[in-house]
Amino acid sequence: MTDYVILFPSDDEARWEAGTEADHQATFDIDAEFGRLLQDRGGAITGGAALTHSRGARTLRRAADAGVMVTEGPFAESAEQISGFFLVRCDDYDALVEAAQVLVRAHPVVEIRPVDED
């Protein structure tokens, strides 16, 4: 089986924080529906996590003097940050993409990337 990571790079963190418990549950329900659809197609969610707000991130970059620069917050200067991810395993990439289509009801952008096994 092939491993994939599914990223949610455009979720609005401020909207999530302002959301109600019912709003959050609707997202969790869609994520669970994805899990069921994936399982029906022979795949499985093997891991994943919701991430805390990007303001809690620390970004490390190689500095011009070959040192390391540490900055607070995400690297990208954007209101949109990766809010979470799933690790999945599936033999059929097309079936994974088909199952993942349900996720766009809760996440405006869903990025699916194969894990490099080399």
Key terms:
Alpha-Beta Plaits, two-stranded antiparallel sheet, 4-stranded antiparallel sheet, flat, alpha+beta, 118 residues
Straight-line distance between termini: 14 Å
Give the class-level CATH name. Answer: Alpha Beta
Strand order of the largest sheet: 2-5-1-6
Class based on secondary structure composition and strand pairing: alpha+beta
Quickly give the CATH architecture.
Answer: 2-Layer Sandwich
**What portion of residues is helical?**
25-40%
Number of strands: 6
Following the backbone from N to C, one meets helices and strands in this order, namely: EHHEEEEHE
Task: Provide the β-strand percentage band.
Answer: 25-35%
How would you summarize what this structure contains?
The chain is α+β, with helices and mostly antiparallel strands and 118 residues long. It has one domain: Alpha-Beta Plaits, CATH 3.30.70.
